[in-house]
Amino acid sequence: MRSLSRRALLRGGALGVAAAAVAGCAAEEPEPLRAEPPDPETVLLRQLIAGKEQAVARYASAASAKLAPFRKRHEAHLAELRRRLPPDATPAPASPGTPSPSPSGSPGAKASVRSLQRLEQKAAALRPRQLDGVSPALAQLIASIGACEAAHAVALSRLR
Length: 160
Fold this sequence. Notes:
Elements (H helix, E strand, L loop, with lengths): L5 H22 L12 H23 L5 H17 L28 H14 L9 H24 L1
């Protein structure tokens, strides 16, 4: 058996440590990319769009000529909200637990004037809470939509 000199042993150990260090660096996994949190205004716009889509669908299910002007105003709101959505953000349905006016009754059921009035009241009551922390332009639009929804609720009470 051949004996190793002290120098050969140290040299071999140093090479082994260096090889282990290089292997350790190469085996290190890259840090995963962290997704940027979504812009709060974009999230809010998506919620507003989902609520307006529900309102338009509820008015369409009522199929009454008296309610057509209400539906058209909601369609105008929907168009303006969609226009403000950033180009890279596609409208997505509101996630579960997201506050947005939900239609009452089954999806295919004909909407009653009373159910539409409740929908308008709930939506109008929600708008002031949506103003906090948004840009002045979006706050103005939300406030205007809320005022229109409140006026709808009053007008619908007269149609019953």
